[in-house]
């Protein structure tokens, strides 16, 4: 029986479902409620006191940072753990979150183990005592969603990332008849994929990557970093929808990866629209 309450806040329903599934399977003593943005979360928090907040940063109406700053001004939430789960991993944003009173910071994409470890860290003895009273182990069962993706793709053990830490995408000479190719950094929980954008819409992107890299599994979380303007990078959350050999032979050198976007933030859609316009003109 659940004895603790957690609020999951993210504008992408796919991400909210991943977080809730992990919490439910690893920590059955925690009951989860979700909200699609900070404004809705604020409303829920005003009516119910939660023991843990798991929140995205970039959301419409009210950001995660704004929710955190408001929360720390409320007497009942001064010491409640707040985990920021976001694709914004640069030092400036981490410092800003720390100043706002964040308890822990978890980058997207995240693994079930990574999220579980953060929850254990911020909840401490209170969570352990609740689990002990329920007769459950802190380790919890394996995440079925992750297992399914692994079985579908015969995914290898995590290897070192095939590229440097995610940063600003670059442009370079064409490789397939396009005057200039758009290079995307596609981040997964255990690796980063260097790739070239082959096609992109408001709902998905198809990239081509060399086979000698670490590839994800079907349905794995992804963050696609693309340059939408000079010195401006959009970080688009999504999941792996399709993996396909570029050539019709087993020893193909290139693999096509389709990422379905899950963000519902109007600003991100506007940024993506600008990139698509530039991409089409370049083609």
From TrEMBL:
This is Response regulator. SMART domains: REC (SM00448). Pfam families: Response_reg (PF00072). Keywords: Phosphoprotein. The keyword Phosphoprotein applies. It comes from Marinobacter panjinensis. It comes from the Bacteria. Residues 155-179 are annotated as: Disordered. The modification 4-aspartylphosphate is found at residue 56. SUPFAM superfamilies: CheY-like (SSF52172). Residues 5-123 form the Response regulatory domain. Gene3D superfamilies: 3.40.50.2300. One of its GO terms (biological process) is phosphorelay signal transduction system.
